[in-house]
Amino acid sequence: MKYWKLVSAATALVLSSGVNASIVNTLNGVEYEWLELTETQGLSREQVESQIASSNEGDVLYGYQYASRSLFQSLLNSYASWDGIEGLHIQPSIVSGLTTFISDFGEGASHQYGSTFITTANDGSSVEYDGYSLTRGIFGDADECNYYGPEWRCYSTINLSTLNGVSVGAYQNDLSGWGDTFATVPTDYTNTEAGSYLVRQLSPVPVPAAVWLFGSGLIGLVGLARRKKA
Prior knowledge:
By secondary structure, this protein is an alpha+beta fold. It has one domain (3-229). It has five helices and 13 strands. Strands 5, 6, 7, 8, 9, 11 and 12 form a seven-stranded mixed β-sheet that branches. It has a five-stranded antiparallel β-sheet with strand order 1-2-3-13-4, with helices on one face. The chain is globular. The chain starts with a helix and ends with a helix. The model is unreliable at 1-11 (pLDDT under 50).
């Protein structure tokens, strides 16, 4: 069985390589390596892009690029599906999925309140919480989120409500997906709690079946022509 078939799109493998901490997963049959947000926290987008452009293979960010809008959404959906309903989601699969996401990519902030609050989940259930944990990151290719000009890029906040340190709910925006997935920030955004969603492709893009059929047909025609000539 081929290796990529063994890697679930919903399961990430955390690796450590030198100073790099990365997550490897497979999306749409292609294997990707993602750099943890902790590697770029405190760096502006402009600073990150200058390091990406480096030709020195020894640099931490060498070979990485900002995840596109669609690829980042696929990454989130591999952890927890998006149903388009705004509000606090308490389904175990969603809560555990995004808890794993924050664990993999790094927690940007957490806060414990002095008292317990009660809120209503999107299914009408009452949920108690006494704190939150979240992670923030910048992503997007050029011009993907330039609502206010080309110097703006995509920005995401993944937010979990917690009770006694345990995740009990995950907030989902109705238009953008998990957190404020498609909000925008300027390229010089320097909040030290935010990192950058950087990715590099490990496996080649699968060749479409039609291409294989076309190639097989050509080989067959060449073989037939040779037989006739003989």
